[in-house]
Amino acid sequence: MSKLISHTQAINNIESGMTIGIGGWGPRRKPMALIRELLRREVNDLTVISFGGADVGMLCAAGKVKKLVFAFVSLDFIPLEPYFRQARQKAEFEVMEIDEGLMVLGLRAAAMGVPFIPTEVGLGTDVIRYNKNIKLIDSPYDDAKEWVAMPALNLDVSLLHVDRADQRGVCQIKGPDHYMDDLFARAANTTIVSCDELVDTGFFHQNPEEARYVFWERSATNYIVHSAFGAHPSSCNPLYGIDVRLFKEYAASASREGGWEQYFNEYVLIDEAVYLEKVGGADAIRSLPLPIY
Amino acid sequence: MREEVLCNPLADLLICACSSVWDSDSEVLASGIGLIQRLAASLAMIKNPNLMMTDSEAFIVSEPVPVGRRNGYEPKRETWMGFSRIFDNVWSGKRHALVGPSQIDQFGQANISAIGDYEQPKVQMLGMRGFPGNSISHANSFFVPLHSKRVFVKGEVDTVCSIGYNPARLPKGYCLNDIDIRRIVTDLCVMDFEPECKKMRIVSLHPGVTIDEVQDNTGFDLIKPEGLRQTPEPALEQLTSISILDPDNLRINAVKAR
Asked: Which ipTM did the prediction report?
């Protein structure tokens, strides 16, 4: 069974008003080629759930976000994501701002098919003051404490990027961290995964190590998109690092009138192959240094 | 040719003062978020190898990783510690984080999310990150590089990202002692919370700083004990360790003397 589709076919699964989960973390292993395809579409009013970086910033800049579920939006070396910040300061979208760990629990609840997971996280803070959809409950057992009932974050579609995959949906992440991508894969009705390298299934048979870097079973993956350098300008450690130059250009564009339109025309509204040439080509991307934290 | 400045005594003093926040800890994850904080945690782990640290990416290391360029140094990785496992550690309580909030109030509630009206913030910052969970799950300390009324605000912080000693916000079934804010290190002084009344208290003043200077730069009343001691100057062995942990001298530009 082949799950292989094109970028265009992949984003055909996304309709206005849907809830979209995006994998990766800040400027790390974000499915940016899929995000660029989404940015080119007339799809709006999205609810976006992400450990956010430029994926969130670009969707905010393009006015596609109706509601953002977030704990942070950051490019790491540029701590404050400029377009997210601008849009938030203009109150352009609704927010559900929660703790990083609450996002983990919300995704896990969705993955488990339970309506909520009890936790102490958020008690005593503005998490429970501003998020009226997050309820407090008493324990049905003997403790006398109240608990935050973190609701399931059920997703229509998850967009993820991995190092390599076969066309059946076996996805490998060789970098140091798979972040919450396994939970995003399980929390969604439709999980779309772009991969830097498309491999034969035999790749995983070479030694058991290769299978150790597979963090969810293929039944949690609905579609595979072959997208060389599909995380660029975010990193896909160990294949390539962050494109600091392009992120700086992107961030600088936010302080200019019409800056987003210019960035959009130059780097988004073009064919993916043209994009890769424009940002320096395969060899240049492969030689982007891995970030040191 | 202008001579390159190669030392910043304030940075060294603050790193040492910050490192002492872990003095009473045993086998916990020492998380220092920010350059001064990370160097402080590193210094603490050299003194107390029972502490745990990460490479700031995805592994626990057996010794602190120097900041800046690695110059061939390979982190001594001993345990995988991706972000998902960090939350497992947070919820176990076996962690003490030293973080740098933008606002702190009299209750020790902290803000890194938004300044001004929450619906339409004047200044949107990072977002709450892990503050809500950290603050109710494990010990926390704060580092403030510029002690001012803009940081130590009157009333409450604009967005309450972390729980503090605020009776009005105390969850059902909790008491103030369930919250564990250890120390606040600023460029003027070291503070903590008086154990009984949970009000912020000066512990020591940095060399040359007066009680009035601290109070005048704080938006609420502090407890000012008699006979305050001076924050200890760094010991020679601490300075040696710091220079090894920060071979590129990144700390020189991390804080400015006022």
From this structure: 0.97
